[in-house]
Amino acid sequence: MLRLKVLTFDVNNTLIKVRNSVGQQYAQVASHFAVKVNADELGKAYRVLYKEQNKKRPNFGAESGITSEQWWGEIVHKSFQQVGYTEENTLAKISAKLYEDYKHASSWHVFPEVKEMLKFLNKNGVCLGVISNMDERLIPILQETDLAQHFAFILPSIQAKCHKPDPKIFQQVLDRLRIPAADCAHIGDNIEKDYYGAKGVGMNAFVIDRDKTLRQQHDDIPKEQFLQDLTELETKIFQEIK
Predict the structure, then answer these.
(1) What does the pLDDT read at residue 239?
(2) pLDDT band with cut points at 50, 70 and 90 for residue 242
(3) What are the Cα distances from residue 239, in Å, to 1, 127, 228, 235, 236?
(4) Residues linked to residue 186 through DSSP beta bridges, in sequence order
(5) Closest among 198, 187, 177, 202 to 237, alpha carbons compared
(6) Which of left, alpha, beta for 212 (phi over 0: left; psi -120 to 50: alpha)?
C-alpha cells in the first residue's frame, strides 16, 4: 500500500547533471569562435558571478524585467571579461550558443538509475512531478533526455514566479493537486532549498546524497531521510499492511 501518493523532484544534480563543468563548457564553446581561455579560471569566475547574479536578480530575472537569456548573458559576458576576453560581438555569439546548447540533451547526463526508477514509480501508481529552480528551458531539457513523459506536471521556478526554498512554490503544487502535504514528498540535493523548503509546508522530504557527504554534515536531519540514489525510494513509498 502506498504511503506517499505524490513525489516531486528537483532536477539539476538530482535527476541529471551537466555533462561537462561550466568552465569546460564555456571554454569549449568559445573555441568555436577562435577564443582561447583557461577553463578552470573561467569556472571560478562563473561561480562567483552566478551567486552575485542570483542575489541581485533572483529567479533568472523574472522579477527584474529581463529575460532568462539576458540574465545568463550577463553572467557569460562578465565571466569572460574577468579572464581577460572583452570583445563584445563575439561574447554575444558565445552567449547565444551556450544558451541554446544547454537546452539540449547533449549538455546533460542522466544519472544511471533515474529512468528505471521513474518507470517503477509510474507503474506503481505514484504521481510524479518536478519542482525546480530553473528557467523555461527545463521542459525541453526533460523532453530531450526522455524524462518528461514520466511526470504529471513540471514546474520551473521562472513560471511559478517564486523559487525554492520559498514555501509558495511548494504550496502551488499542493493547491493544484488538492492533496494533503503529508501524502507528498519532495526529493532534491539541496538541504535548504529542497529539504527544508518542502518541510516548511508540511511535505515529507528526502535528500539525494550521492557521495554521502551531506549526511555527515547535517546531524539535524535523520539519517533515513538521505538517499544515495533514487532506488532507495522503493522502501520509502510503501507502508506495511498489518
Answers:
(1) 65
(2) very low
(3) 6, 17, 21, 8, 8
(4) 8, 205
(5) 187
(6) left
